[in-house]
Design goal:
The protein is an alpha+beta fold. It is built from 2 helices and 8 strands, in the order H-H-E-E-E-E-E-E-E-E.
C-alpha cells in the first residue's frame, strides 16, 4: 500500500460521514420543498373554490385516467467502489408506467439507465476517470396526494435490481484487479428509490414532472444512500 493510499484511508471515515450527511440534508430540503408545494396547492384549491363564480369553471383535469407514462432525464450521484473517497455524478434517462387502481393508488414499473465517469485511486495501469454505467429496473407503488387543476403531488417507493458495469473503459485491467484501483467488479445488486414528484398540469393529459429520490443501494458491504432527481413529461390516458 502506498503512502498516498494510507492517507486516503485515514481520511475515509470522516469523508464518508460528510457525504452521508450531505445526502440526508438534500433529502430533507427536497421533502420540505414538497411539503410547501402541498400547502400551496391546498391554498390554491380553497381560493378557487371560494371564487369559482368569478373565475369561471376549472380546467378539465380530473385525474380519472387508468394509465400514465412518464419519460425524462435523470441525474444521480453514486460511489463506484467500496473505498473510493469521492463520489461521481451520473446522467441518463428514466421511463415508467403506472396503472392506477384508484384515484390515489397506482402500481408502477420503472427503468433507469445512468452513465458517468469516476475518479479512482492512483494506479500503475494509468487509468483515470473510467466510464461506469448502470441499468436499474424497479417495481413499486405511487400514492397521489394533494392535487388540484394546476398540479398534483405524488409519493412513491420502488424496489428492484441494478446492474453495474465498471470495466467498460478499463480494457487493460484484469477484472480481479479492479478493486486495486478502487472500482467494484461488474455485479447486480438490489436498489430502491424512495421519493415523490410534483406534476404541473399542461392539459388534462399532459403534465411536467419534477421527481427527487433518495436512492438506497448495496453494491459494497453496506447500504449506502444517494440523491437522484429527474424531470420530464407525464402522459395520462385511459378512463378508469
Amino acid at each position: 500500500m502506498t503512502e498516498l493510499q494510507e492517507k486516503m484511508l485515514e481520511k475515509k471515515p470522516g469523508m464518508m460521514l460528510q457525504k452521508t450527511t450531505g445526502a440526508r440534508k438534500n433529502t430533507v430540503r427536497v421533502l420540505t420543498g414538497m411539503l410547501m408545494a402541498a400547502l400551496l396547492i391546498a391554498g390554491a384549491e380553497r381560493a378557487t373554490a371560494q371564487g369559482k363564480n368569478k373565475i369561471g369553471p376549472a380546467a378539465p383535469v380530473t385525474y380519472d385516467n387508468r394509465y400514465e407514462i412518464y419519460g425524462g432525464i435523470n441525474l444521480m450521484n453514486f460511489q463506484a467502489g467500496q473505498d473510493l473517497p469521492t463520489r461521481m455524478n451520473m446522467g441518463g434517462g428514466e421511463v415508467s408506467m403506472t396503472y392506477w387502481l384508484t384515484n390515489h393508488v397506482g402500481l408502477t414499473a420503472d427503468y433507469r439507465g445512468e452513465a458517468g465517469t469516476t475518479p479512482v485511486h492512483p494506479n500503475a495501469f494509468e487509468i483515470n476517470r473510467p466510464l461506469v454505467y448502470m441499468n436499474m429496473g424497479m417495481l413499486g407503488a405511487q400514492y397521489r396526494g394533494p392535487k388540484n387543476r394546476y398540479a398534483a403531488i405524488n409519493y412513491h417507493a420502488y424496489f428492484g435490481a441494478s446492474h453495474g458495469v465498471f470495466d467498460s473503459s478499463t480494457g487493460n485491467v484484469p477484472p480481479q484487479y479492479l478493486p486495486t484501483i478502487g472500482l467494484y467488479t461488474n455485479r447486480t445488486k438490489g436498489i430502491a428509490a424512495l421519493g415523490g414528484s410534483v406534476d404541473f398540469n399542461y392539459s388534462k393529459n399532459i403534465a411536467i414532472r419534477l421527481a427527487p429520490d433518495l436512492m438506497l443501494e448495496h453494491f459494497g458491504t453496506e447500504t449506502r444512500q444517494f440523491f437522484a432527481i429527474s424531470g420530464g413529461v407525464v402522459y395520462r390516458f385511459g378512463k378508469r
